[in-house]
Amino acid sequence: MQFTQVTLTDFVAQLSTKAAVPGGGGASALVGAVGTALGCMVGSLTVGKKKYAAVEPEIRSLMEQSQALQARLLGLIDKDAEAFEPLSRAYGLPTATEEEKARKAEVMAVVLKDACEVPMEIMRCCCQALELIAVYAEKGSVIAVSDAGVAAALCGAALQGASLNVFINTRSMADRTLAEGFNREAHAMLDKYVPMANEIFAGVRGRLDK
Questions:
Q1: Which pLDDT does position 84 carry in this prediction?
Q2: N- or C-end of the chain: fewer Cβ atoms within 10 A?
Q3: Burial of 208 (0-12, 13-18, 19+ CB in 10 A)
Q4: Which residues, other chains included, contact 190 with Cβ-Cβ below 8 Å and sequence gap of 6+?
Q5: How many CB atoms neighbour CB 19 within 10 A?
Q6: What are phi and psi of 154, to 5 degrees?
Q7: What are 108-147's pLDDT values in tens digits?
Q8: Distance of CA 43 to CAs 36, 90, 101, 146, 150, Å?
Q9: Do 11 and 3 form a contact (C-beta atoms < 8 A)?
Q10: Domains in the chain: boundaries
Q11: In angstroms, rounded to a whole number, what is the distance separating the alpha carbons of residues 125 and 130?
Q12: CATH code of domain 19-205
């Protein structure tokens, strides 16, 4: 099933079942795509306005980058499902003999790596989106500043959600060097960009509370 081709109603309905996919990774990718699109909406409400003529070239560039990130995140919904299904099957492989144990370990090494790489890419996209959203919030149309705040909140949540899909897989990896490499990168993104998301949100809230 291509989850990007189903209705939102069907996606949410499928998400609520015990089916292996979609799961937290796909949900995080969708939330990140929505947040990225909201940032782009701020740009759309900014360009063409005399008041923002000085920043229009920069905003147009941000919009192009946002649209590319949005497309990547949507694509990662299906990629996450594609990566998780083999992992789900691998957990059920037999281990009655030493030969079967060795085969399962070999398969698990491959599928765990694949299952980590997709949420890592979701995280990277969300970090890039937050960099853009920070500029939208600062320089975009004031009538859409609340949308920039929502965009930051969504991308921050998607970043954190995707990280959990990394960590649940790295803890099962036999190759601890590879696992710690994934963990280090994930923690570095969290340490930098969760505070950024919170700062953008707080800045927008502060402007609206006045």
A1: 84
A2: C
A3: exposed
A4: 159, 160, 163
A5: 12
A6: -70, -45
A7: 999 999 999 999 999 999 999 999 999 999 999 999 999 9
A8: 11, 45, 54, 13, 14
A9: yes
A10: 19-205
A11: 9
A12: 1.20.120.680
